[in-house]
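Training component of the fellowship. As part of building independent skills, the fellow (R.M.) carried out the full modelling exercise for a liganded target. The chosen ligand was LW54GNZ2. The inputs are recorded below so that the supervisory panel can assess the work.
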Amino acid sequence: MAHILIVEARFYDHLNDMLLAGARAAIEAAGHSHETITVPGALELPGAIVLAEDTQRFDAYVALGVVIRGETYHFEIVSNESARGIMALTMDGIPIGNGVLTTEDEAQAVRRADPAQFDKGGGAAEAAIAMLALKQRL
Ligand SMILES: Nc1c(NC[C@H](O)[C@H](O)[C@H](O)CO)[nH]c(=O)[nH]c1=O
Ligand SMILES: CC(=O)[C@@H](O)COP(=O)(O)O
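Fellow's submitted model of the complex:
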């Protein structure tokens, strides 16, 4: 059994709740345990994973968050830099599932976060579990 840390950027409560439900259900369905920590926004996700990895308590990570386009270039900064940070850690060999939604509007985000629709939280958890299995096998 693996112990998986869900790191959630809680920017939109109702959307985060759906992503979390999907991720937790997928981890439990696979027979693993989990904890959750919360950070302010998607830009904090990579740094939080680094801090958690230093504790050596977790086998894999699920990064969750929602970035919805506003009026300015901030959307690109938050979307691209959070993904870049997570990808850098992935390339260091840390199993991470990226469940950060980057959408044009709230309706797109709802469809993707809802466990009964696209279930991107569950999908990110499954990706983390798959990468952990690969790491253990290689
Ligand atoms: N606009 C969104 C943000 N912005 C906040 C940043 O992620 C960060 O917390 C702030 O710049 C302080 O470092 N975060 C999201 O997760 N979603 C957004 O739509
Ligand atoms: C991530 C965003 O684009 C948004 O939260 C920020 O909105 P704005 O660009 O209108 O400041």
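The panel noted the following from the submitted structure. The CA atoms of residues 67 and 102 lie 5 Å apart. Residues 67, 69-72, 74-75, 78 surround LTPLIIQW (ligand 2) (CB under 6 Å).
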